[in-house]
């Protein structure tokens, strides 16, 4: 049946009808008073969502573009940076500064395991001459469904005194409580196609005062991603380059929806969806890839035994029009990932779990009791 596709991946995520209708409006001039008025409200609501009084800047870019901007604006060639690597995106943030001639020191953990804050603390404490200029951390590691202990890591960075903390919050911003000002996070990057509930195309960078001080002396080349330009123009409710006007209109609508729901309710919903999904997988005797206590409210990774994950994904798509994410790199065929961030409800989880049960029977997986997954998820929802 046409138009029944259900995205249960960590991005792009489902888009509400109100937002789709906003996207369909005629574009208008990005140098007009109409756009300036819209930009002013968008900026105000972005600061609300980021829990910050500092700058939140909009880029026409993906989350990777936002992260690149968050790195190149505040560092210089040869600077030493500490990067946490426990998945595909942590690895990417090690490759990115290497491409710009930075000195990269990695703290690693096995994919599916959280970073150990003590390893980061030890490296920072050993840096007595303050050579480490930044610590780059993925909050929610999308490739594995692991939520790293950013709060503890950030405390160690603050104790260092010199280093900036640069955060990939691409799948956590808007799904996990991230009090930027309370924690004193310096740079936080995110992307529109995740919890923001709009299509891909916009990146966001929150920048604090310590990072702006570093900006004054940073020497890496930048032009289109020069955040100083965006800051200067944002103060006038405009942008230095042509923005995707219709996406900005959609963002305007989505942020209003998020504000109406409220931060506490948004975070509670994502936590409930994660708990229900994880309990459903346990009910189906499907091993979880991320350990309890470190699961991401954005996505749950599952490592089934005795059946190929790609076969499960294929049947889910062909039979039920439900799209699950696969494993990346060496995890391809070994895990599948269920996205539950953004415009996702309890009903979506129940539908996905029920369809997964039918899929497991079709692919010959017999290690579960029919109905156990739906029952486990329903118990979580009944208790919430």
UniProtKB/TrEMBL annotation:
Its cofactor is pyridoxal 5'-phosphate. Residues 28-328 form the Aminotransferase class V domain. The keyword Transferase applies. Pfam families: Aminotran_5. InterPro entries: Aminotrans_V_dom, Aminotrans_V_PyrdxlP_BS, PyrdxlP-dep_Trfase, PyrdxlP-dep_Trfase_major, PyrdxlP-dep_Trfase_small, SP_NH2Trfase/AEP_transaminase. The keyword Transferase applies. It comes from the Bacteria. GO terms for molecular function: transaminase activity. Keywords: Aminotransferase, Pyridoxal phosphate, Transferase. Belongs to the class-V pyridoxal-phosphate-dependent aminotransferase family. PANTHER family: ALANINE--GLYOXYLATE AMINOTRANSFERASE (PTHR21152:SF40), AMINOTRANSFERASE CLASS V (PTHR21152). This is Alanine--glyoxylate aminotransferase family protein. It comes from Funiculus sociatus GB2-A5.
